[in-house]
């Protein structure tokens, strides 16, 4: 199990397009991927759950990944957040 954090740094936060890109990454892994803030953790493979998080710019999210490909999953997810979901500033 890997328990870490990711920061939402893109201008619009975890909106529909960014959530869609995150789903593209998370669904290719077998591992369980949970994302959340505070005590609320959601399945990061569920688009509706991601949208309901309401994670705006500046939000620190907890990322918990458990499974056979957890290391690659964390690497790819962190890369997506760091790249600001490949959105123009």
UniProtKB/TrEMBL annotation:
<comment type="similarity">
    <text>Belongs to the HPr family.</text>
</comment>
<dbReference type="InterPro" id="IPR000032">
    <property type="entry name" value="HPr-like"/>
</dbReference>
<keyword id="KW-0598">Phosphotransferase system</keyword>
<dbReference type="GO" id="GO:0005737">
    <property type="term" value="C:cytoplasm"/>
</dbReference>
<dbReference type="InterPro" id="IPR050399">
    <property type="entry name" value="HPr"/>
</dbReference>
<keyword id="KW-0963">Cytoplasm</keyword>
<protein>
    <submittedName>
        <fullName>Phosphocarrier protein NPr/phosphocarrier protein</fullName>
    </submittedName>
</protein>
<dbReference type="InterPro" id="IPR035895">
    <property type="entry name" value="HPr-like_sf"/>
</dbReference>
<dbReference type="Pfam" id="PF00381">
    <property type="entry name" value="PTS-HPr"/>
</dbReference>
<dbReference type="GO" id="GO:0009401">
    <property type="term" value="P:phosphoenolpyruvate-dependent sugar phosphotransferase system"/>
</dbReference>
<feature type="domain" description="HPr">
    <location>
        <begin position="1"/>
        <end position="88"/>
    </location>
</feature>
């Amino acid at each position: 199990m890997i328990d870490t954090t990711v920061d939402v740094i893109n201008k619009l936060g975890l909106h529909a397009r960014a959530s869609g890109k995150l789903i593209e990454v998370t669904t290719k892994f077998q591992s369980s991927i949970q994302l959340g803030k505070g005590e609320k953790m959601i399945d990061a493979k569920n688009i509706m759950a991601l949208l309901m998080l309401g994670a705006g710019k500046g939000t620190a999210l907890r990322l918990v990944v458990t499974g056979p490909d957890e290391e690659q999953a964390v690497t790819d997810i962190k890369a997506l957040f760091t790249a600001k979901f490949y959105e123009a500033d």
